[in-house]
Amino acid sequence: MLLRFDKQISMINLSFKKDNQAGASIYIAIVCFCTYACVYAFRKPFTIGLYEDMPSYLGIEYKNLLVIAQVLGYTASKVFGIKFISELKNIGRGKLILLLIVLSWIPLLLFPVLPAPLNIFCFFLNGFPLGIIWGIVFSFVEGRRATDFLGAALAVSFIVSSGVVKSIAKWIQMSFNISEMWVPFYTGLVFILPIILFIYLLEKIPAPTPEEIELKAPRLPMTKLDRHSFFKEFKIGIIAFVFIYLILTLFRDLRDNFAANIWNDLGYGNNASVFTNTELPIAFIVLILIASMIVIKKNKLAFLISIVIIMLGFIIVGLSTLFFKMNILNGYHWMLLVGLGLYMGYIPFNSLLFDRMIATFRIKGNVGFLIYLLDSFGYLASVIVISIKGTAHLQLNWAEFYSKGVLYFSILGLLASLAAYLYYAKKIKTLNY
Q1: Residue 141 lies in a domain
Q2: Cα-based distances in Å from 343 to 87, 282, 311, 356
Q3: Of 14, 48, 74, 337, which alpha carbon lies 20 to 30 A from 248's?
Q4: Does residue 13 fall inside a structural domain?
Q5: DSSP strands (E only) in 28-142
Q6: What's the pLDDT tens digit per position in 162-207?
């Protein structure tokens, strides 16, 4: 039966490769979306807990320590991934993803078993393998004619899945009276068979065609010399991108990890569906916006427009927060619009921006190097801010703390995005084609 299924998948892929590029793109998008959506079941369920009965350590609340531990694991994996993902070869990627999932799930079993504060370290061990998976999955979609669409579908998976997984985790907790310590493990258990299936389908995705390679430039493993040359050539622009992405990751991650706290402060603490109700429309809008870039054939134009989209995201974040502070917007619509603006800035970095950049400047390399370089700084910033908030004992609730920060930093993000646009526009003018 398994051999028959494998043969059917191979025939579907062969048909797509020959005469149905649109069908192939939809198939790849669905498989990649579902694969990474399942990954979130091993990452985010613990955030639905408040852990109010747990003691503080080192002057930091228990939940904050869990978030810090996981983000530290993520940060370490991103630093590791700068080399590992940029040098990744297209062999055994599916098995590697499955191994990383298992390595991330084991700490979730140990978390409720080990005593505090020892069990906090489980989330460092959980975060490290999970942080490597994004670059592996994205390697299946970069350098294709439809990468804008495929990357957008893959990237919005963590918008949808973050809300859906939290809703499922909350439902599991309330329906089966499971303690918040065991919720992360059981949520992962629900998704273990689906992710095995989607990893299998991921491995069956056909390689880019010769026409796609010509259009988007070949995606090759990068040596240390390649990485140094790349950075030296685009140093100012990459630094601008690092700063922009740092801001976006910081406030997206705070919103994601402390959504339960923010919603609780806004008066929606007992509403399990609120996580999904805000994230689904955001995912739909961002998917349509980013995927529509596929109609732009000129890589130079698409690259610059993607930076404009990031700028518009910061404008939406700033204005919506200002209106919230003025009581023009209620808490629900503020969280919705802030999420939309942040993801309008965040998703291009994880989908089309670097793919179009490599195609524009015909760079020898791959998207993974840039994504992991920026991620390492972004997650480190999250750790620092969460630690400061936890140890300084600020007399602010999470909604107030978050709204103040996102308002000021949206201005800095907008200015940095404008600087990046002007830098790369000047660079593009020097190209000879």
Answers
A1: yes
A2: 28, 8, 11, 18
A3: 48
A4: no
A5: none
A6: 888 988 998 999 899 999 999 999 999 999 999 999 999 999 888 8
